[in-house]
Write a structure and sequence with these properties.
Elements lengths: L7 H8 L4 E6 L13 H17 L2 E2 L22 H17 L4 E6 L5 H16 L10 E6 L4 H11 L9 H10 L23 H7 L14 H26 L1
Parallel strand pairs: 1-2, 1-3, 3-4
Helix pairs in contact: 2-6, 2-8, 3-4, 5-8, 6-8
Length: about 250
């Protein structure tokens, strides 16, 4: 059930049985020579829809532009400032809380969002903590990066080993190829595995260190068939995690 394809009476009816919602969040940024720019948002959207269907939970619209200033040296990348993304997350949650939602489960496709989104959660909690005693809405928020579940970590290591890397990874490229076959690009990477590193600052520094956009990865190993395996494991893991979150907060 998608929020954007629901009517307001349908949402009111949903709220009588659940106050939880799944919110996909990603980024619009470069993903190396063969990864499409929308990978992070497309992955979060596809996984969220499947988790929502599995758990009979409403899914909100995808926040498709994230905090990706370090990718702005590559054509097509877009970014929000951290303060802007915090405002988008805060206003999204508060808007839905106004209607009675209390449990917000963000499925994230971009590691660069993590610090900013969790800081936004702290701002939301501060608003309720500092508000009128006894009148605070019991909001709970959780952020889950789809690629960090234990089962996905193990599967990625089995499939790609050290070539998984940190950015433009074969696992995220494969997942998107499965969800969107039109995203398949077949290229030979040189070198096969890109240099590794995690100490970068602005966009010029990132482009200087990682000239083709990859960090320690070989996304040329990606295939839609492998993406299907990754997708199924991810949906299983996150569906169970969401159900625990919703049950504990009820």
């Amino acid at each position: 059930m998608l929020l954007q394809l629901s009517t307001w009476p349908e949402v009111e009816a949903y709220l009588r049985r659940s106050t939880a919602i799944i919110l996909p969040i990603g980024s619009t940024e470069q993903h190396g020579p063969n990864g499409v720019i929308g990978i992070d948002a497309l992955a979060a959207d596809g996984i969220s829809r499947a988790v929502g269907e599995r758990t009979d939970t409403l899914v909100g619209p995808t926040i498709a532009v994230g905090m990706a200033q370090h990718h702005m040296g590559f054509a097509g990348s877009m970014t929000l400032r951290p303060s802007t993304l915090m405002a988008v997350v805060r206003d999204s949650v508060v808007s839905l809380a106004k209607h009675g939602f209390t449990r917000f489960y963000f499925i994230n496709g971009h590691g660069g969002n993590t610090a900013t989104v969790t800081a936004a959660f702290s701002e939301i909690y501060a608003e309720t903590s500092l508000g009128t005693p006894g009148n605070a809405t019991p909001i709970r928020c959780r952020l889950r990066n789809w690629w960090t579940t234990p089962a996905i970590g193990q599967l990625s290591r089995e499939l790609f080993g050290h070539a998984e890397g940190h950015h433009a990874t074969p696992s995220e490229v494969a997942l998107t190829q499965y969800l969107h076959p039109e995203a398949v690009r077949t290229l030979t990477m040189t070198p096969a595995v890109a240099p590794m590193g995690d100490d970068f600052a602005d966009a010029a520094d990132f482009r200087r260190q990682f000239p083709d956009g990859r960090i320690g990865s070989n996304p040329g190993l990606a295939t839609p068939e492998l993406g299907k395996r990754i997708f199924e494991v991810t949906v299983n893991d996150l569906s169970r995690d969401f159900e625990r979150f919703a049950a504990a907060a009820a």
